[in-house]
Amino acid sequence: MKRELEACFDAALVRLGWIAPSGSLIERPRETGHGDYSSHVALRLAKSLGKSPLAVAQTIVSNLPPAFEIERIAIEPLGFINIHLSQEALLRELARMMDGTHPYGHSPPGATRVLIEFVSANPNGPLHIGHGRGAAFGDALARVLEATGSCVEREYYVNDAGRQMDILALSVWIRYREYLTRVTQAFPSAGYQGDYIRDLAGKLVGAEGSRFLRDDERAPLPPDTPESDGADRHVDARIALMKEALGDEDYAAVLDFARGQMLELIRQDLLEFGVRYDRFYSERSLYTEGQVNELIRLLAERGETYTQDGALWFRASTHGDEKDRVLMRSNGAYTYFAPDLAYHLDKMRRGYDRLINVLGSDHHGYAPRIRAGLEALGEDPHHLEVRLVQFAVLYRAGQRVQMSTRSGSFVTLRELVDEVGRDAARFFYVMRSETQHLDFDLDLAKSQSQENPVYYVQYAHARIASLFRECAERGLELDQSDRQDWERLDQPLERTLLTILIRYPEVLEQAADGSAPHLIAQYLRELAQAFHAYYHAVPLLVSERSLRNARLSLCFAARLILADGLSLLGVSAPSKM
RNA sequence: GCGCCCGUAGCUCAGUUGGAUAGAGCGCAGCCCUCCGAAGGCUGAGGCCACAGGUUCGAAUCCUGUCGGGCGCGCCA
Question: Distance from residue A550 (CA) to nucleotide B14 (C1'), in Å?
Fold first, then answer.
């Protein structure tokens, strides 16, 4: 609708030989008295034309091509042009909504290929509530992009190489020996202490029996002190002893087992959260397939590296990063930056039109570093779109729920979903702009009343479903064949509801363009409210057939949009509650 | 100290890429079921858009500075 009107205005400007100003010609006025749409082109053009805005507006309006969409057009003294839509235009949109072959507001799949990487949490523990927000946001964004015609792939980058995997293996192995020997072992403070490690150890016993049972207590160990890096040195020594005790092959077997199980746990958590990935991309594969080495070679060829203090550095500061970055440490081990950059180079080369990275806000230093690397490699760094998701803080009974990663006693995504349900969790996560810190009120998310926005929206959907069940019982099925009936939709509340419904395509477009799924949540609340008001004020199951058909059609359309919007957020649309 | 994000109603937040008199929800004060779901509806009060400058026909929105909050700044991951 907006697009049609914009075309009209464009045509008028072309006819007049005036150059359209940048930005949108048509917008939604916030005052309902200012029409369904309005334009401020005249104000923008007045100065360059040397005429008054009012005169410009009058000229434009008199040059508009005739359009059936427009019922009435009003020029305000300031120069605003206000457009009131015809009922015919509204009903044409209603017909599009009711058309079952194509969801209203969606675009058919096009050629644009998008890769969206999100969550990508390290596989050394279960997902927590911070990851949950990234998951809800990333997946909703993916769904919105799909709905607006993009071909989307969801990808999870698995940091399954390096020291943290060693720590995971060690942690599991210690619990494994405890499990078998019933003797409590000294547990390193830098190890992973959560109960899930015990679960993994139990599974290891189930799968492999006691074949990894060895002793590692021989050498004197560095003390496990919190001062300086005592804990790190201690854990590294324990890892070395473990490797020695098990031998390379068995060590790799334990590590692979722990890694595989951990990944499976994460995959399962995400699946139950309604998030399905197309690909889990392994960091380790970048080593085994030589991409890390190739990256280093490419950078060196381009003169982007140098050696200092025995380490290999990348000249990041010449590409906009605040300082140079180490690629390979003096001990010969790669930093995480090297494979991460190799990964992003690989993504670039796979030929997507858009690359989106959803990261936690604590990773904001990461983007300039990767961009610097891509630029040094001759890629366009702006091709990578980074969305930073701010933290979520849980509140229970008005009190902040403390989150501590130490001792592994953080709130997991699974616990959150168990407590408030998947629908509430997903809706609350994406209800606010991802740039905002999120206060997640657990009590509100659980409450089943109007104060809870999820229930409010879902209730509107269930209410319509119930209405149609009532119809069926009374033998008053909706007859969609006769669209002449729709002209009976002449109540102000019906017009209000219709104008909200026809806005849906614009909301989707805006949410897709701005990576802003929260706009959909906002919109659904508004739509639900308009429906509830309508439902309350206007009798729907009236005896007169044509009037009843008209009103039921409107309800039917509202139901379709509510269900569609909820599904884009990954929230169910129940028929009964 | 440097960098990124954020300051809008008592609380939690929108604000359509610079437009008209500033928008919701919750909370608060009232009112509304003989009726298709009251898990609902209606009405009301509540604002110096953190502060100070600047840009222009026009600023919550853009620029600069100040104050306040969150986060990040390793040969960690």
Answer: 33
